[in-house]
Design goal:
With about 350 residues, the protein is mainly alpha-helical. It contains 13 helices and 2 strands; from the N terminus they run αββαααααααααααα. The protein has one domain. A two-stranded antiparallel ribbon has the order 1-2. The two termini are about 35 Å apart.
């Protein structure tokens, strides 16, 4: 009888272990799917920005876009309009997404939460900074190049994660990073003009925006140890809204003869995709970590190229198609490597 009991106990332990392993594996798969979905949202956001800055035939039906020039002041305006929609919208949805949202936000004033408070404030500053740098870069160089430079951030994230969390990248992961960067570089449009000083500034700002976003993802991963992604994301958006508003005031935007209806429609669409993209990405970071999430999100330039081809009829060259294929295979390899390590 005792033998039967021990066997049953052993069987139960094995069953619980299998269920736990299955749950963890499912969480990893879900994390990869969520981050890929967030990349799709960011792709739509990028296309919306392109249309606001430059006229394109949307779905081959009619020419739409070119409502404002890609200047610094207009970039701050679009960023402010986007956040002005995102912050109150998320404030209404946050309690439904996570019931403890306002409780966690309120607890930040407690002395024992001071470190977390600084992390949240820092994340908001970093979000505003990386978006501002990216928008300025887009204003100086072609959007595709600026986005590709921005999505060099997985390399920075891997180095920072190694520095702060001791997560040393494996040789395979270094290979995946190189392959993703190569594939993304191949998706860049070819520029036939001479390289000016503004072009070099745009290139440096594009890289700086990626480096800044890498810090944001690392700070997010650290914060998610004690805070849920929903209140964290809302706080980041709120701080970015305040800073973009201040920048807009300091920028002293003079031109009031703007197509406000078109800008608000574009701002609403951009805000929707921004909200969904950042929220999903933060959930993904919580499930698979900042390094893996950043590598999966690095598919964004390639996905943007494909989406731009589908929506605004931007053509794809054979070299760009090769870049898309390299990035896709690299992410698939990363997912397989993540599973084999468990």
């Amino acid at each position: 009888m005792a033998t039967i009991f021990r066997l049953d106990e052993k069987s139960s332990g094995m069953a619980i272990g299998m269920i736990k392993e299955f749950t963890e594996e499912s969480a990893i798969v879900l994390g990869f799917v969520i981050v890929l979905l967030s990349s799709v949202f960011f792709c739509f956001q990028n296309v919306v920005v392109r249309v606001l800055f430059t006229s394109h035939p949307v779905f081959g039906i009619t020419e739409i876009g070119g409502f404002v020039t890609p200047t610094l002041q207009h970039s701050f305006l679009l960023l402010f309009m986007r956040m002005l929609v995102v912050v109150p919208a998320m404030a209404m949805l946050a309690p439904r997404l996570y019931a403890g949202t306002w409780k966690e936000v309120h607890q930040l004033h407690l002395p024992e939460q001071r470190s977390l408070l600084w992390q949240c404030l820092g994340s908001g500053v970093l979000m505003f900074l990386y978006l501002a740098l990216l928008y300025i870069s887009i204003g100086l160089i072609p959007t595709g190049i600026a986005l590709t430079l921005f999505f060099s951030y997985p390399m920075f994230t891997a180095l920072l994660s190694w520095r702060f969390f001791g997560n040393r990248p494996t040789p395979l992961r270094w290979g995946v990073i190189v392959a993703i960067l190569l594939g993304s570089a191949l998706t860049m449009p070819v520029v036939h003009t001479s390289v000016s000083q503004n072009t070099w500034i745009g290139i440096l700002l594009g890289l700086a925006s990626g480096f800044t976003y890498a810090f944001y993802t690392i700070l997010a991963q650290k914060s998610f140890e004690t805070m849920h992604p929903v209140p964290f994301t809302w706080l980041s958006f709120t701080i970015a809204l305040l800073l973009s508003g201040i920048s807009l005031i300091l920028g002293n935007l003079q031109n009031v003869q703007l197509p406000w209806l078109a800008l608000w429609i574009g701002g609403l669409l951009s805000a929707t995709f921004t909200f969904g993209g950042h929220l999903l990405n933060n959930f993904g970071i919580r499930l698979i970590g900042a390094t893996s999430a950043s590598m999966v999100a690095a598919t964004n330039p390639a996905l943007t190229v494909v989406l731009a081809w589908f929506t605004i009829q931007e053509t794809l060259t054979n070299v760009q198609l090769l870049g898309v294929l390299i990035v896709t295979l690299s992410v698939a390899l990363l997912s397989r490597e993540h599973h084999s390590r468990r």
